[in-house]
């Protein structure tokens, strides 16, 4: 009789352990994030000592469900050119600035007083505004290939280059205001991107101000590679080329 009672007790406790273990598994399901948590684990230990049976059930819930993935940042969209023709630009020449800006933009105010305007201060007395690679700039080259005088080239800070006046040197101006520069190494300002026009006589280099997220053909190309040089090629990060494969000039 005692053996039969012990067997019934052991069977009942075993069934109870199974029920509790199933509850532990159900409680252990992961959340509803992008990645589900692992399922719960149930451990049942049954020991018998001197006719007494002890059943221990341990249930551990599953891990917390992973959070949903956040959307990626949108890429920069194409930017528009400032100009297409010289007539689209105007010259700002006062005590504060010597630069080309779009003709429909109001020049910045300049409260300073000076003996001569900024363009004259760097030797650019006859400078005008130009439209180069979709940007309003000065009609002043910073390409030293035309310099023949024996005057030492001025040392300019990053982001500036020495303007060429006739066949000699003028003062330093922003590289983004030069009508052209010697090569891409001149585009050393913090926001400079180098644009190279592919011509039959060689490349003409320009420094263009552009956001750091907009330095390739997909974004910058439509605003600098204008007709007829409207075919854009990514050369390397921060350098793009504009060409006209069908041109015969």
* Main sheet characteristics: 4 strands, mixed
Fraction in helix: 10-25%
- The N- and C-terminal alpha carbons lie at a distance of 114 Å
Q: Main sheet: which strands, in order across?
A: 10-9-12-11
Number of helices: 3
Order of helices and strands: HEEEEHEEEEEEHEE
Strand content of the residues, in percent?
Answer: 25-35%
Low-confidence stretches: 1-75
Task: Tell me the Rg in angstroms.
Answer: 37 Å
Q: Can you count the beta strands? A: 12
Shape, per Cα inertia axes: globular
Describe the 3D structure:
- The structure is a single chain.
- With 249 residues, the protein is α+β, with helices and mostly antiparallel strands.
- The chain has a domain at 86-243.
- 14% of the residues lie in helices and 31% in strands.
- It has three helices and twelve strands; from the N terminus they run αββββαββββββαββ.
- The strands form five sheets. A four-stranded mixed β-sheet has the order 10-9-12-11.
- The longest helix is centred in the N-terminal third of the chain and has 26 residues, at 2-27.
- It is globular.
- The N and C termini lie far apart (114 Å).
- The model is unreliable at 1-75 (pLDDT under 50).
């Amino acid at each position: 009789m005692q053996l039969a009672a012990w067997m019934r007790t052991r069977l009942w406790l075993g069934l109870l352990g199974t029920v509790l273990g199933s509850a532990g598994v159900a409680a252990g399901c992961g959340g509803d994030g992008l990645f589900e948590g692992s399922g719960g684990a149930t451990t049942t230990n049954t020991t018998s000592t001197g006719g007494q049976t002890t059943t221990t059930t341990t249930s551990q819930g599953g891990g917390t469900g992973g959070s949903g993935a956040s959307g990626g940042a949108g890429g920069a969209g194409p930017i528009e050119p400032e100009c297409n023709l010289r007539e689209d630009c105007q010259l700002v020449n006062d005590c504060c600035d010597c630069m080309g800006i779009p003709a429909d933009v109001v020049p910045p105010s300049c409260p300073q007083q000076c003996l001569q305007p900024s363009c004259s201060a760097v030797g650019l007395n006859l400078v005008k505004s130009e439209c180069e690679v979709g940007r309003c700039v000065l009609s002043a080259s910073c390409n030293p290939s035309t310099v023949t005088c024996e005057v030492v080239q001025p040392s300019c800070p990053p982001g500036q280059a020495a303007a060429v006046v006739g066949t000699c040197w003028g003062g330093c101006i922003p590289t983004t205001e030069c009508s052209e520069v010697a090569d891409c190494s001149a585009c050393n300002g913090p926001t400079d991107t180098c644009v190279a026009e592919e011509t039959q006589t060689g490349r003409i280099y320009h420094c263009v101000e552009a956001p750091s997220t907009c330095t390739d053909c997909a974004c910058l190309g439509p605003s600098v590679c204008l007709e007829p040089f409207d075919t854009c090629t990514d050369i390397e990060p921060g350098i793009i080329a504009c060409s006209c494969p069908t041109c015969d000039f």
